[in-house]
Each structure stands twice: as structure tokens, then as C-alpha cells.
Amino acid sequence: MTSIGIHDLEMATGHHVVELADLAEFSGVAPGKYILGLGQSQMSVLSEDEDIVTMGAAAALPLLERNGTEGIRTLLFATESGVDQSKAAGVAALRLLGLPSNVRVVEMKQACYGGTAALQAAVGIVARSPEERVLVITSDNARYELDSPGEPTQGAGAVAMLISADPDVLEIEQANGISTTDVDDFWRPNDSTTAVVDGHLSVGAYLDALTGAWKDLEADGGPAIADIDRILYHQPYTKMAKKAQQRLREVTGEEISTALNPGDEPDGRDTGLTTGSIYNRRLGNSYTASIYSGLTSLLDHDDSLEGRRIGLFSYGSGCVSEFFTGVVQPGYLARRNPARAEKLLDQRVPVSIAEYRALHAAPHGTSDDQVTPKVTAGPFRFAGVTDQARQYEVR
Ligand code: CAA
Predict the structure, then answer these.
(1) Is 315 in the pocket of ligand 1 (CB under 6 A)?
(2) Residues 276-323: pLDDT tens digits?
(3) Which domains are delineated in the chain?
(4) In this entry, which stretches build a coiled coil (predicted)?
């Protein structure tokens, strides 16, 4: 059977950055709570002329420049911070990217799991038509209410992936483990621009879903834990990945290391918990893009991945989760570019807490007519709203 998977991938984020030490000081919280307790040092913040469309298209642009557009007949845009109830964000991205009209576009939603749903659907499309390639864009702006416990776990990011036959980066294996439960741990009602969350319930729901998905992977004939070399988890904050690793250790009995922070003493087999969380620690939560930012981080910082199997646990509140695996292909070293991601993170423009709070209060996804200030340094911008329709332009 043809191997199918991620041929190439690229990350993007917002224009601004907030230091969590500053947020802690403003909130009267010990900085250690955010930096060690949650495992986050920064969070990306969008400028007023950025949104999930501009960020997702910014991730896809270099991917298409490197790989061309031949054979792309599907664009799947995964997000849980959608800007319209009807029109897929990917339709605007298609125009910005100059993709032709014979590309079907759809938006996929199931909280942070939507990106994995898009990836698996793309694998199915390529299995039927191996000459086709599918563009998957995961893009999210994670927003909680100011002064809420979720506030330090905000963030923004996008990862675009090209799914094809004979991929250069990661072959997706067939077995998968699913766990779906109807739970009110996190959601965003139609009339709210911020998520509603029961934080501690969500942590428990995530961990129970991990147990369920792992057991289902075993039942589906998936690999033994000993045959999985690296493990990535959805990272709403990086400490959550450590909690997940602890749970998987209990469930499987395998001594996999739960050391998260650089310099922590490993307490078992290193499965890449630290290397897979370098970018997320600085991006904050990027919802659908989070596990794929984790994948980018692992690929960029681990030189010995060729032929290694990676386990990926994708969780979307509400909740749907999946544990699946992939094998890293020899072409990954030529595809990765750690300097690119570092630059992306380093070039963000810092904002004070007062500026960040003003940005948080700016209109988000509302249909009131508006013209946005020109701020973003990205290739595309959200110009505002005219007659209730969102306007995008190439910068
Ligand atoms: N130094 C070091 N650590 C400290 C500290 C200090 N000074 N003060 C506190 N801590 C530690 C605590 O011990 C705790 O560690 P453990 O989790 O290991 O016990 C950690 O910091 C957090 O402290 P609290 O639990 O007291 O924090 P909180 O109640 O204020 O909020 C939260 C934590 C519930 C995760 C909150 O940030 C939140 O609601 N986040 C949004 C929801 C979320 O991310 N859920 C994750 C699962 S759902 C999901 O994954 C989907 C998604 O993307 C949203």
C-alpha cells in the first residue's frame, strides 16, 4: 500500500507577544505558577488586522512556494475560533493564496481535535486518489476572559500541512484509537468571543480521554508502547503534556520520562516531552494547531528521528480525542528549518499588559463595520468589515 502522510509543514503566529512574567505581576500571581506550574513563558497575541484567516494563509504561503500547487484539489481549514457561522475561513485563504477554483474548501470543527480530523480526512482522500495532495490548515486564536484562570493559557498559532502519497516527513499509520464523550468542559457559545471553560473538569476529561484512546488503539492493533519512540500531546499549556505522560505511564506501565523543563532529570525513557514543547511554551495555546506546533518543535530539535515512530494524542474538548502514530521519513532533515521557527517567535513585537488588554477588548469576529489599523508584518491582513462582510488583502 502507498504510504501517505505529512509531506511538509509550516508554522505561523501572531504579530505580538506577552511575557507571562508580566501578566503574573499584573495579576498579583507568583510568576512560578505560570512559568513552572503551567509550563508557559509567553503567549502570542494577534494585532487588530490579523485573524485565523491571515495566520492560516501565512503558514500555507511558504509551503505552497516550496511545493507548488499541482494536484491540490482540497483545502481543509480546521479551527475552533471561526469568524463566520456559514462561510469557511479557507475560502478567503484560497483567494489570498492564489489557489484555483477547482479546489474544494471546507471548515472543520471539533475544538482542538479539528486539525486531526482534517489530517485523517486528507489521508483518506489521498488513499482514494494518490496523485492528489491536500492542503490542511490549522489556525486558532485562543481567547479566555480577562482575569480568568484560563487567561495565562491563551495564545495564537497556525500550522499548514501538505498531505500526500510518499511523504517526506511523516507517514501516518493506519491503526488509531478514538475516545468521544459528551462533556461540558470547554465550549464557545455563538454569542461569545471567549471560551467558557471548567478548567479542572477539562484536565480530568483530557486525561480520561487519553486512557480511552490508548485502550482503543490497542484494540485496533496499534503498536506496543515500547515500539513508540516519541510521544506528542495536545498542549493547551505544556504542563498538560507532562500530566498526560504521567497518565500514559500509569496506563501502560512503561517507564517513559515525565521530565518536561529543559534541565529536568529524566525519570525514564526520553520520548521527547521537552523537545516537543519548545515552541508551545512560547506560543501559548494554539488549539487545533497545538499538537502540530509540537510536531514542528520535535522535528526541528531532534536529529535522530529517521525511521522512528511518533505517537500523537490529539484532544478536543467536548470531547473527541484520537491517539495515532506515524513514522518519520528520511526526508525530514531536509524539510525542517529550526531557524525559521525561531525567527518567527523572536520577531514578535512585545506589548505591555495595558496594550494587550486593549487588544483583547477590540472587536473579534463581530459584524459591525470597521477599518483596522495597519499593523501586521505578515503577508496578509484583515482590513476590516464592510456591509457585515470581512475584508482581506495582500499586504
Ligand atoms: N510555582 C510553581 N507552580 C505553581 C505555583 C508556583 N508559585 N503556584 C501554583 N503552581 C502550580 C500548581 O501546583 C498547579 O500544578 P499542577 O497542575 O501540577 O497541580 C499549577 O501551577 C496550576 O495551578 P492551579 O491548578 O491552581 O491553576 P488554576 O486553577 O488557576 O488554573 C487551569 C489552571 C485550570 C489549567 C486554567 O489555566 C484553565 O482553566 N485553563 C484553560 C483550560 C485548559 O487549558 N484545560 C486543559 C485541558 S482541556 C484542553 O486541552 C483543550 C484546550 O485546548 C482548552
Answers:
(1) yes
(2) 999 999 999 999 999 999 999 999 999 999 999 999 999 999 999 999
(3) 4-169+337-394 (3.40.47.10), 171-332 (3.40.47.10)
(4) none
